[in-house]
Structures are given as C-alpha cells and as structure tokens.
Design brief:
The structure is a homodimer. Chain A has about 210 residues and is an all-alpha fold. Chain A folds into two domains: about 1-50, Arc Repressor Mutant, subunit A; about 60-195, Tetracycline Repressor, domain 2 (Orthogonal Bundle). Chain A is about 65% helix and about 0% strand. Chain A has ten helices and no strands. In chain A, α1 (about 5-20) packs across α6 (about 100-110), α5 (about 80-95) packs antiparallel against α10 (about 185-195) and α7 (about 120-140) packs across α8. The radius of gyration of chain A is 21 Å and the shape is elongated. At the A-B interface, α1, α6, α7, α8 and α9 of A face α1, α6, α7, α8 and α9 of B. The structure holds a DNA duplex (18 and 18 nucleotides).
Chain lengths: ~210, ~210
DNA sequence: GTCTATATAATGATAGAC
DNA sequence: GTCTATCATTATATAGAC
C-alpha cells in the first residue's frame, strides 16, 4: 500500500515524459530508471524489455487521450458555436497533456513509424471522424456550401490545432507572430476565417 | 576527378536519407558508412564526429531548401491567383525533396531540439515571412478584410501544407479522406475555403 | 519485488598500416 | 584518403542474492 504510486507506475510516468521529449531512440533504460528512482533491473522486471515498456507507455497514453477526446462533439447550437467549441476544446485537450500529445503525434507523423499498426493513429483518427460527422450534419442542413468537402474542412481544423501545438516553440521566436500564446484567439480566428472567408465583400459573394 | 560524387558527398547523401527517416538518435555511424559504401573510419575522417556530420547534413539541407523556396512569392495578379500559386508551389517544394523536408521539420518541430540555434528555423521562417508580406500587401489594397491578421492567415496556409505533408502516410489509411494523394485539389480547397469561407450565403455576409 | 553484479553486443571514436 | 583493428563507453538484458 503506497501513497499513490507503485514502482511500475513511477517507471511508466518517467518513461512517458522522457519518450515524449526525446523519442524512443533518444532515451535509455538507465535514464528511465534514474528518473523513476529505481534500478535498471527493476524496469526490466516490470516491463520485460525497452520495446515493451514503450508499448506500455503508448497504450496508456492512447487510452488516456482517447478519454480526454471522448467529450468532444456533443455540443449543439448553430454551426459557428459547435465548431468554435469543438476546436477550442480539442486544442485544450492537446495542451492539457503535452507529453501524451507529443508521444502520439510523433508515432503518427514520423516517417519511420509504421502507421497501420499504431494505436496512436486511432486516437487522432477518432477526433477527426467526430468532427467530420459534425460537418456532414451541417452540410445536410445546408448551413455550409454544397461544394465543401466536410472531411477536408475537418482535416484543416485539426491540422490548424496540431500544427499550432507542434510549432509552439518556433513561433515564439517569430517577430511577425503575436498570437503565439493566445490559444483562444487563435482558434477563434481559424474558425472565423474558414467560415466567413477573409476576402472583402465588395457586394459580390463566392460567385462563379 | 570522380564521375559526380566523391566520398564525402556519398556519406552526406547517405546520412541525409537516414537521418531524415530515423532521426539523429536512430542512426548509427556504422549504418551511414554501410549505406555510403565506405568504412566507419572514413566517416570520421571527413566529418570529425557524428554531431558534426549531422550539422553538415543540416547545413546543406537548409541551403538547398532555401534555394528551392527562393522562387516563391514573385507572382502577381489578383489575390486568389497569387495565393493559389504560392501555396501550390510551396507544397511542391516540400514534396520535391521529402528527405530535406522531414529533416528540417523535425529540427524545428520536435520538442527536444533547441529552436533558437537552428538554421532550420530560418528556412521555415523565411517562407512564412514571404507569405506574410504578400498578405500585408493585399490587406493594404483592401482585398482582404481589415480585421484579418496577415501573419495568422499566412501561418494557417503554411500549416495546412506542412501538416498535409507530415500526415501523408496517416491519411492514406483514413476511409473518410479521398484527397490524400491529390496535392493540387487540396491546396485549391485550402485557398478557396479561406478566401470565400464555407458558410452558405443566405444573403447575409460576415456581419456585425 | 528490490537490488548489485555481470554478460554481451553495439556505440562513438582513434591508431596506425597502406 | 582508404582501410582494419582496436579503444573506452554505453546499450539492452540477465543472474542471482536478499
């Protein structure tokens, strides 16, 4: 009976942080053991191998993140509110657990990893599917243009959030950018631009 | 006088491919030497250390990619054409040299890497700056709404392209997505959605 | 379950012959 | 400049005492 964490959990937590920061190849079992304040042998005792440890980290991360994303998409109201809420909450999920996000994103987006076998792909895929469903719904209600591809629009919104998270450090060094830390201003702008467009209306809408 | 490649170049090419695919920690000097058909010692003779080899790869990649991006932004015409051309050519640059793109993007976006010291950040930054300049130009001409942030819009367009490239493998496994391999259809949709918006015009534009 | 000690392979890097 | 042979160090993983 420990305060709140047994050894296996300590190891899992340490591994999660380290793998998230440096990737699988950048982390040694010795480092994980040090950070978890246990011996190397203890790590192998609990998880068998470095690969199995990594899989355990991924499995827990996927489940945890899936749970976070589970609440998304349940909103009602008009399109603007539904989308705005979805995108804002989606970005909040990502920033709420940055280690999990980095871990799962790397697994899905890195060229070396095999996407088809990865559970991480399911996590990103499920939020995308939900958003696509919302947009298909709105398309039937004719609130968005009939020539709009709901999947492509959903993909763009997810992309905007994911890239914003990924490039967080980068954009803090860019003088042109002043929305770096302002998540809600960013998501609002994304939704607004995509819904209304950025073109000035000189009386003439989309047209063709 | 060799046909077209001396040993140092062979090594650099092999290292570029491998680092792009597996990252710095995922590649050993032995592997680079094997792929370049030289001995390990030869690698150290030409580049001094693994770190210096990596830096040499990054340096060449940055210069090469910067040259590719150099042609962007020179287009004239209306906003739609300028943007459409820029975004399409930008994506073409990325896909033209996938190894360079992976290499530089990892350097900029990975949490473990130090952004401020990296030349790779300058490459991504310069294309962003160019696109921002184009949009600031158009804002003065009042072709885009005064409340639009040119930097944020430019960022979104770059994000759309970069994420499309990054998630290439992933989206091929998604049944909802049918624009996976169609780069020009994708960029056209991105530009159109952002310029015109996706909302149906029931007679009422942006409003307020 | 925890540890120390160890086995074995691979790592980055060097020495020195040719 | 090229290589083989070798160095010291670290890697993953195991053995076995407590």
């Amino acid at each position: 009976m420990q305060q709140s964490s047994d050894a296996a959990d300590n190891i899992l937590n340490a591994a999660e942080q380290l793998f998230a920061l440096k990737g699988y190849d950048g982390v040694s079992v010795r480092l994980v053991a040090e950070q978890a304040c246990v011996s190397k042998a203890s790590v192998f005792h609990h998880f068998g191998s470095k690969e199995l440890l990594y899989e355990a980290v991924l499995k827990r991360a996927s489940a945890e993140f899936e749970a976070l994303l589970g609440r998304l998409g349940g909103n009602t109201g008009n399109l603007r509110d539904r989308l705005s809420t979805f995108v804002k909450e989606h970005l909040t999920c990502i920033y709420d657990k940055p280690s999990l996000s980095h871990l799962l994103l790397r697994e899905v987006l890195e060229p070396g990893s095999d996407v088809s076998y990865t559970k991480a792909a399911g996590v990103l895929g499920s939020s995308f599917a939900k958003l696509t469903a919302v947009l298909r719904d709105e398309k039937q209600s004719q609130t968005i243009k009939p020539e709009t591809d709901p999947a492509l629009l959903a993909y763009l919104l997810i992309a905007a959030n994911v890239f914003f998270f990924q490039s967080q450090k980068f954009i803090q060094h860019m003088s042109e950018i002043d929305f770096a830390g302002d998540n809600s201003r960013y998501t609002e702008a994304v939704v607004t631009y995509l819904l209304d467009g950025v073109l000035s209306h000189s009386g003439v809408p989309a047209d063709h």
